[in-house]
């Protein structure tokens, strides 16, 4: 199992919890890589990226439907909110 937030595979609730732990660690260890460092900024980006995530999937030619999310979709949204402007 890879223990970096960008490469970690989320498949279920248990791995999503591990992902959130890794996301927190990534924020503490690499704040310079985060565009949205405050809770209000992160929540705003989280909302905006949730709205736009289907475009990401389409552009990457991934057969994922954001309107029928699974645990990995939620992880993608949190990763996107880390850097989304």
TrEMBL record:
State a single Pfam family of this protein. DUF7660
Q: Which InterPro entries match?
A: DUF7660
According to the entry, every stretch annotated as the DUF7660 domain falls at: 13-85
Q: What is this protein called?
A: DUF7660 domain-containing protein
Source organism of the structure: Flavobacterium aureirubrum
């Amino acid at each position: 199992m890879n223990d970096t937030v960008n490469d970690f595979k989320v498949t279920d609730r248990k791995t999503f919890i591990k992902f959130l732990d890794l996301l927190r660690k990534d924020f503490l260890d690499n704040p310079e890589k985060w565009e949205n460092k405050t809770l209000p900024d992160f929540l705003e980006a989280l909302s905006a990226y949730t709205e736009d995530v289907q475009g990401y999937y389409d552009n990457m030619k991934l057969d994922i439907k954001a309107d029928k999310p699974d645990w990995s979709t939620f992880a993608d949204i949190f990763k996107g909110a880390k850097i989304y402007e």
